[in-house]
Amino acid sequence: MPTGVALRDAREQLFGAAERVLVRDGPSALTSRAVTTEAGCAKGVLHRHFADFDAFLAELVLDRIARLDHQAAALRESAGTGSVADNLTRALMELFGSVAVAVVSLVISRDDLRARLRETRPTGIPLLTEAAGMVAGYLAAERDLGRIAADADLDTLAPTLIGAVHLLFADRKGTPPEADAVRKVVTTVIAGA
Q1: Which residues of 151-170 are buried (b: 16+ CB within 10 A; e: fewer)?
Q2: Contact call for residues 90 and 97 (beta carbons, < 8 A)
Q3: If you compute the radius of gyration of the chain from its CA atoms, what whole number of angstroms results?
Q4: Sequence-distant (≥ 6) Cβ neighbours of residue 179 within 8 angstroms
Q5: pLDDT tens-digit profile of 109-119?
Q6: What does the pLDDT look like over 45-78, one tens digit per residue?
Q7: What is the mean pLDDT of the chain?
């Protein structure tokens, strides 16, 4: 990057670059050099905005977790409309059709990143844990409307849905599953509820 040319919203540009590298090349290829090259800026730009690369990665993950709030609100608002299976299928396709699978791979592959994230998220796998909370909140809203059984174990159903659907998407290089495959998993998991 030439001297004196400012990046607009450097943080978001760096996050976007990191996501592209992560999705394209996987977590092992994610270095500060790869991120800044992808962003088209000097390596020092990253270090000007973040204490170190692990701090950058932690902020990236936390930012992506924060983005779930919008999706969670939209999913809760869909309670009482359409079918429960269709609403969950749509939400899970959106969740895992994004960079979520790559971010989960990143968290799993980097011990230092996981340790940093454990400071504020002591249990579970960051992003997946919050996604399970999103699904549990939706299922609770549907239960309140009588569309899910009153005795349904939401604390088991939600992570089961997240885990089962995550496995469908987990092959980073393969073709993502079709909505019908996700719907089949969803209907199977919630059948008793």
Answers
A1: ebebeebbbbbbeebbebbe
A2: no
A3: 19
A4: 89, 90, 93
A5: 999 999 999 99
A6: 998 999 999 999 999 999 999 989 899 999 999 9
A7: 91
Q: Structure tokens of 29? A: 């290829």
Residue type, 58: A
What is the C-alpha separation between 176 and 29, in angstroms, rounded? 22
Whole-model pTM? 0.88
Query: Is pLDDT at 29 greater than 90 in this prediction?
Result: yes
Burial class (CB in 10 A: 0-12, 13-18, 19+), 139: buried
Q: Map tokens 């002591």 to a residue.
A: 122
Rounded CA-CA distance 133/124 in Å is 11
Is 22 within 8 Å of 99 (Cβ atoms)? yes
- What angle (nearest 5°) sits at the alpha carbon of residue 124, between those of residues 119 and 125? 90
Total length of the chain: 193
| Run of H or E including 84 | helix 84-97
Amino acid found at 83: S
